[in-house]
Amino acid sequence: MNGCDAGTFTVERVGDYAVAKPVRRIAECSSCSGTGLHRATIEDRGRRYEVSRACALSQLQGRLQLFNQAQLPAVHGQSAFETFRTPRYEAVARAKSIAHDFAHRWPQQRGFILSGPVGTGKTHLLAATLRHATIEMGVQAAYVEISLLYATIRRGFQEGKSGGEIIKPLSQVDLLAIDELGKGRGSPFELETLDELIARRYNAGKVTLFATNYALAPPEERARPMVGYESTDDRKESARESKQLCDRVGARIYSRLCEMCEFVEFPPDTTDHRRLRADNDVLRGAKAAPRPR
Ligand SMILES: Nc1ncnc2c1ncn2[C@@H]1O[C@H](COP(=O)(O)OP(=O)(O)OP(=O)(O)O)[C@@H](O)[C@H]1O
Ligand SMILES: [Mg+2]
Asked: pTM score, two decimals?
């Protein structure tokens, strides 16, 4: 125990983001008299020293700051492993287990990529992973939805900023979650931006997590060369129409993903939890409505 009781925290929506705050304030802490520090005695080579250490509440504040810096979407403020219902689909259960182990056994060498239909919990699991990694493990992390990143860079150009300037913090952060991979028009600007971000992280050995609605190639196809991908306009056109992630992001990026990540693909009939929730609300409303006499 670090001298004062850290208590717990809440997560609220503030603008577009989920923001965590401790329930107690350091000023109200009777154990550390609002200093945020507690005295501890350490022993070194037979000698005893009195030192000041951050109290439990100020440590919690530091970890909540890491959570806030990750910039998780407001709608995923309550997304945690505890709130992810154990799914009946084997692939989703596997994804939960991989994400859970990943977050609880940090540091890691390799990330994961979740692919599946809409509303199946991919962003929930990314958010749960970042929540645990920041608050429980003290990891510096960031979340980014890829099309919002492209929009931010485009806006930055108008303010005289380069794409590299905007990408730099994302390429350096210890843990990055990239959501909606493959989304966008597949323009040269988008592909170059993505290539730069992933190549920088790959070269630096940084761990990255991904979620996508596009299909992953089966393992036997991943090993095959992607002949002539970067060629004619016809091929580029068909890449834009493709439902395969490798077509959407190109051979260079896909090759790096294979090394950087464990692949998990949800089956096409996985439950869409948004629709499920809406259907349940309708049913509950129908039950609660007064019966006509
Ligand atoms: N297994 C689950 N248990 C509890 N809630 C879930 C589960 N799966 C999804 N949800 C909830 O359903 C909603 C949609 O999930 P989420 O945003 O993670 O879907 P997604 O797979 O990222 O969808 P999309 O591809 O559209 O981005 C969220 O509110 C999420 O918390
Ligand atoms: Mg999502």
From this structure: 0.89
Residue 1 lies in a domain: no
Same domain as 53, residue 183 = no
Q: What is the pLDDT of residues 104-151, one digit of tens each?
A: 999 999 999 999 999 999 999 999 999 999 999 999 999 999 999 999
Of the candidate ranges 9-13, 60-64, 84-88, 284-288, the one whose mean pLDDT is the lowest? 284-288
- Report whether 39 contacts 52 (CB < 8 A): yes
Query: Do 171 and 192 fall within a single domain?
Result: yes
Task: Note whether residue 65 is domain-resident.
Answer: no
| Closest by CA position to 78, among listed 41, 42, 131, 143 | 131
First-to-last alpha carbon distance for the chain, in angstroms, is 63
**DSSP letter string over 13-73?**
EETTEEEEEESS-GGG-TTTTTSSEEEEEEEETTEEEEEEEE-HHHHHHHHHHHHHHT--B
CA atoms within 13 A on the CB side of 106: 22
Q: How many CB atoms lie within 10 A of CB 222?
A: 15
Ligand 1 pocket by Cβ (under 6 Å): 79, 83-85, 87, 116, 118-124, 211, 213, 273-274
Q: Containing domain of residue 75, as a range?
A: 70-275
The residue to mutate among 123, 146, 180, 277, having the most atoms of ligand 1 within 8 angstroms of its beta carbon, is 123
Using alpha carbons, select from 135, 59, 77 the residue that is nearest to residue 103.
Answer: 135
